[in-house]
């Protein structure tokens, strides 16, 4: 019997972000992209590429936040998942781009 395909859970938490800001997660090894909104009091999202069995342990994953906060980080999937936090992303406020031009 073949080994079952296990879910690869990807968590991203950026507590300094606003609810509704999005993160982008890319699989740099096999391709593929997931996006998810940050929600809740701790501003997190959990992404599960389970239907895409191509995401495997050892794949290099990149998480990005682009908006008021900006940051990027890379990690490998281990033991079925990977977790990113604001410190990993180096998320810093974008103070050079105006929110609106009058």
Find the CATH superfamily. Immunoglobulins
Counting H and I runs of at least 4 residues, what is the number of helices?
Answer: 1
Number of domains: 1
CATH class: Mainly Beta
Q: What is the radius of gyration? A: 15 Å
| Percent of residues in beta strands | 35-45%
Helix percent reads under 10%
Which strand order spans the largest sheet, edge to edge or round the barrel? 3-2-5-6-8
Structural class: mainly beta
Mean pLDDT: 79
Biggest sheet, in brief?
A: 5 strands, antiparallel
Number of strands: 8
Structure described in brief:
By secondary structure, the chain is mainly beta.
Description:
- This protein is mainly β and 102 residues long.
- The strands form two sheets. A five-stranded antiparallel beta sheet has the order 3-2-5-6-8.
- The N and C termini lie far apart (64 Å).
- The protein has a single domain, classed as Immunoglobulins (Immunoglobulin-like), CATH 2.60.40.
- A hairpin with a 5-residue loop joins strand 2 and strand 3 (33-37).
- It contains one helix and eight strands; from the N terminus they run βββββββαβ.
